[in-house]
């Protein structure tokens, strides 16, 4: 056990040394680490890419809605879809002219999910209600510096919210921070209830990378501009 620990420490030290002297022969996503028996290649992952381990990154300025749906289905309901697939299928069910002007709406999301056999709806509720009553992965619309942006709530603790942001990956917000951007509207899948609740992450399962600082500002052109068209205002 002690020898394994020593090897791990040496490997870590070698990694720190090698990352400072990565030469032109280093492969993308890997570094050469000097070892006792010779150099070996170690696969490494950046903080940026780790933020998207369980979040599908949006590829276009206006695709945060389709990326949020793709993340919801792929990582919480074991229904593997791509952002592109969701975008194309949701567009086929929507008013294309309206989408071109305003982006996708929550009503468009509802129609797409129902076509795939899910029951989905929108409602208003405070964070405490989402945590104590709903307990499901939830798509919400944030207003960040004037930009309307869909994100996915992946978990809620007593005082923090774990968000899967299609533009920035995993991020933890305090209740106060999150409430600055959110107006209380939420969108969930009502069917497949047990599956959704099993996939709603408790605080003990939150990745540490979600707490790492994000370099870029919250506002900016990388955020989607999707506007909501609310399907209903009924409470949960």
Tell me about this structure.
- It is built from nine helices and eight strands.
- A four-stranded antiparallel beta sheet has the order 4-5-6-7, sandwiched between helices.
- The chain folds into two domains: 2-44, no CATH class; 51-211, Cysteine proteinases (Cathepsin B, Chain A), CATH 3.90.70.
- The protein is of the alpha+beta class.
User: Which homologous superfamily in CATH is the superfamily of the largest domain?
Assistant: Cysteine proteinases
- Radius of gyration over alpha carbons? 21 Å
**Strand order in the sheet with the most strands:** 4-5-6-7
How does the overall form come out from the CA principal axes?
Answer: globular
Main sheet overview: 4 strands, antiparallel
Into which percent range does the helicity of residues fall? 25-40%
Round the mean pLDDT to the nearest integer and report it.
Answer: 76
Number of domains: 2
Query: Which structural class should the secondary elements be placed in?
Result: alpha+beta
Protein name: Peptidase C39
GO biological process, one term: proteolysis
Domain Peptidase C39: 58-189
GO molecular function, one term: peptidase activity
Characterize this entry briefly.
The chain is of the alpha+beta class. It is built from 9 helices and 8 strands. It folds into 2 domains: 2-44, no CATH class; 51-211, Cathepsin B, Chain A, CATH 3.90.70.
